[in-house]
């Protein structure tokens, strides 16, 4: 298989953007963060967009942007945590590139997200216990989508080198 683009999927706080930026230099490809792309395109933060137009509108707009980036080549894409779980987005990604699920435990995600609560509308204002419970429930709901990724990577143990190895073993980079 020739890999034209790589989609990093996983829950909020799973490190998709951090990994994506490191893969950019390792692979010599471009990197795009779907959330940043959204904010640039709509000239507002995702938090503002949720407040003004609601989540359903956000999901539709997010889908359009995903279709848009699915045409670009030699690109690593960090998707929003919910992107794989709506419409046929997971199918679109699987049809057009290598999808990698960065799988992390609820504990790790809760630890990471507690410091980044304010910018993420879905977890804003939650206490530590509420956050933990929210992640647990949401992960259960979303796991079925994330697990459709071609590669399920253990984010607790894999370093960048490990990801690079898995990518190169999955196909030929364009
Ligand atoms: C969301 C995750 C966010 C962003 C939006 C909704 C989600 O992206 O797209 O706040 O539904 O999990 P990150 O996973 O990059 O935080």
UniProtKB/TrEMBL annotation:
Keywords: Amino-acid biosynthesis, Aromatic amino acid biosynthesis, ATP-binding, Cytoplasm, Kinase, Magnesium, Metal-binding, Nucleotide-binding, Transferase. Monomer. Its main location: cytoplasm. HAMAP family: Shikimate_kinase (MF_00109). One of its GO terms (molecular function) is shikimate kinase activity. It comes from Carboxylicivirga mesophila. Pathway: Metabolic intermediate biosynthesis; chorismate biosynthesis; chorismate from D-erythrose 4-phosphate and phosphoenolpyruvate: step 5/7. Binds 1 Mg(2+) ion per subunit. PANTHER family: SHIKIMATE KINASE, SHIKIMATE KINASE 1, CHLOROPLASTIC. This is Shikimate kinase.
């Amino acid at each position: 298989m020739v890999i034209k683009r790589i989609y990093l999927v996983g829950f909020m706080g799973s490190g998709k953007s951090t990994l994506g930026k490191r893969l950019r230099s390792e692979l010599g490809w471009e990197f795009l963060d779907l959330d940043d792309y959204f904010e640039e395109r709509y000239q507002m933060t995702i938090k503002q967009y949720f407040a003004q137009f609601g989540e359903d509108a956000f999901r539709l707009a997010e889908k359009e942007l995903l279709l848009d980036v699915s045409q670009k080549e030699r690109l690593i894409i960090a998707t929003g945590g919910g992107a794989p779980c709506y419409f046929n987005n997971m199918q679109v990604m699987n049809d057009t590139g290598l999808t990698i699920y960065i799988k992390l435990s609820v504990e790790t995600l809760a630890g990471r997200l507690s410091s980044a609560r304010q910018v993420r509308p879905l977890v804003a204002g939650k206490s530590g216990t509420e956050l933990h419970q929210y992640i647990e429930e949401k992960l259960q709901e979303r796991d079925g989508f994330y697990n459709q990724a071609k590669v399920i990577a253990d984010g607790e143990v894999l370093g960048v080198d490990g990801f690079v190895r898995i990518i190169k073993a999955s196909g030929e980079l364009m």
